[in-house]
Sequence to fold (354 residues):
Amino acid sequence: MKIAVLPGDGIGPEIVAQAVKVLEALRSDGLKIEMEHAHIGGAGYDAAKDPLPEATLKLSKESDAVLLGAVGGYQYDNLPRPMRPEQGLLRIRKGLGLFANLRPAMVYPELVNASTLRSDIVSGLDIMILRELTGDIYFGQPRGIRTLDNGERQGFDTMHYSESEIRRVAHVGFQIAMKRNKKLCSVDKANVLDTSMFWREIVTEVAKEYPQVETSHMYVDNAAMQLVRAPKQFDVILTGNIFGDILSDEASMLTGSIGMLPSASLDSNNKGLYEPCHGSAPDIAGKDMANPLATILSVAMMMQYTFARPDLSQRIEGAVRKVLQQGLRTGDIYEDGKQKVGCAAMGDAVVASL
Ligand code: IPM
Ligand code: MG
Fold:
């Protein structure tokens, strides 16, 4: 298992260090794991004046999987756009062809009170959001800021999806649904956007190949509402890049803390990039306060999807469950009567229970 480790910025290095401890524990059990570190985001800019240095992309291409922390920091906010940390993230997704982004939102029974929603609404929740990650208005050309004939300036972006892009991510969605509760809801804005009308047409076609899956379609505004009204109606949500960006942040809060949510971004051969759904949290960086569980759970996803070792994935998830049962909590999921711990202590506890 050759893994590229890209800690990035902010809390990235401290949370990734905990996930690396977990990988090292598996290695001392006899698993052949090779890890190599490289820079991305602001750290890439600092080291090589590039948020995705060539060496980082090369290492990532040569690896089976990439473990990423987070990117971004105040000190980079005023850099010109191509140098900004987020560009490193967008370019590595595109550069590795990681079109399928899996963002599970599940509520651990131990944390049901951490959600801002009533526990009867969220307890037992288990949704998988599948977000297309390399197309849509995120990457569409042309884009920019232009001056119109009347002299007024205008900002513009282009939304488009080609048939092959929709088809391949739809297949991934239905295959995931087949392994879960066989329900898939495709989210679009087909009442307004031509791109979405086409999306719906192609998803409907692909659905015919999966007759056991109960397929539905929902407009994105309604989906945003349904996610907080009755989130348990969903099993797999399949959607495009920008809608998935927004809905996955919304869904994360159903679970109590975005600090718990892992993600996987896969290419067509199950090579993957694994990262927590949350950002670099520069305000708490270096203070040993961050929750490392999303990153550790990202390693669990890596074992499942890239290395086809569901046994190891379950072992890591089981270890996380156990520390929650023991009452250990980082600040973001803390409640009265529990034991507040820092990032490193949480990592150590997971390793111990592993
Ligand atoms: C995410 C983030 C990124 C995105 C940003 C940081 C570019 O919000 O991974 O959801 O918009 O995809
Ligand atoms: Mg986002």
Q: What stands out?
A: The two ends are 19 Å apart (CA to CA).
